[in-house]
Amino acid sequence: MIKGLDKLTKELDQLQRVIGQLDGEIGAVSFDPHDPASIESAISNVEALIDQKVGSYSSNSMAASIIEGLKDTYRQGILDKAAEARAAGDSA
User: Fold this and answer.
1) How confident is the prediction for the chain on average, in pLDDT?
2) Sign of CA dihedral 53, 56, 62, 67
């Protein structure tokens, strides 16, 4: 029982470190909203930035879930920004 508690405590400590390292700016990327390859490159760059910050904790299932969720959020954010930029350009 104590062994399981020790593992949980370690995972929670790692999770706290992940959250601390992700607090603030992850990094900046730019892309051409009209170029799918540029958009995909920006997504890959953001994922790499996240992995650089916290990839060492990906073996922690709780941290891995947060990391993947964050990557999904940034991916969708980039896709949304590209769509907005294209729509604004089309209506101008």
Assistant:
1) 88
2) positive
